[in-house]
């Protein structure tokens, strides 16, 4: 097994069979071996810096019905909200003063924000804080839409492919949503000139080591600037309410593998990882991650952006979250930095 990790470090690629064997055959000892190498690669390129992204969850309206997601349209118990342009700008103002130089605008697929409205918000942010990067995470749109948002000033786009395998994808999504369409969007985002982030949930229902192997191979081919992974966590008002969460152990292992496969990639230690374990984000950094994404959304709406149960930080002011993360990172010998934090994986 250690030889497979050495091979990954050297050639930055494995076959599907090798990925599957490595993921299925992992052990605590092997994980420690992997994390040591992942940390050393991370330190080579990014030192002990941790980049922060201010996450603004600006709408929880969604036309989609993903079976795992708490803001799916069939969840009639979700209390829906939209932030106005002024509210979003006020989040940026607070965020800038706290040292954020990247704002992530994330939301459901909400027709209430057409291209014109989003472009207007993007250019207002760019006018107010020209030294900041804007990351969008608003799902599947046409190439023309991605291009218009890019031309308005958006720099980066996060769109997890969720799972590469078409059959597995079909078990997690309603029939109209297709794995291939999601993947096409990622290629279109690259073509439109974005720094692109993809990713997947770890431990989603019906997921096998073979699926994870294919996810790794797809990510290798896409060669993105960012990869967001976190454990699947059930939400009580979805069809997957009774399913078990993904584990800390497998999520950390996948983070380590991603760091070795694409050494310069930006890798967040996600809120979901912090939700399944009190030290999840610290452990994520120690497994090779180099980004954290504290919440900048107004506290009045935080609890309504409930993708899964027991999400952390829903009651905290932005400044509390920022300070909390700074302390957490310092406690393990890492430092939150005030920088745009562009990927070195060009
Ligand atoms: N609508 C945009 C999209 O489709 O990319 C962005 C919002 S979507 C809620 C963001 C991510 O949340 C998804 O890509 C998914 O991986 C993650 N997510 C949704 N439900 C989750 C759950 N129950 N557990 C963990 N992650 C979840
Ligand atoms: Fe939000 Fe710790 S990161 S309170």
Automatic annotation (TrEMBL):
The gene is hydE. Binds 1 [4Fe-4S] cluster. The cluster is coordinated with 3 cysteines and an exchangeable S-adenosyl-L-methionine. (3R)-3-methyl-D-ornithine binds at residue 137. NCBIfam families: rSAM_HydE. This is [FeFe] hydrogenase H-cluster radical SAM maturase HydE. S-adenosyl-L-methionine binds at residues 162, 182. InterPro entries: Aldolase_TIM, BATS_dom, Elp3/MiaA/NifB-like_rSAM, FeFe-hyd_HydE_rSAM, HydE/PylB-like, rSAM, rSAM_sf. SMART domains: BATS, Elp3. The lineage of its organism: Bacteria, Bacillati, Bacillota, Clostridia, Lachnospirales. Transmembrane segments: none annotated. Its cofactor is [4Fe-4S] cluster; [2Fe-2S] cluster.
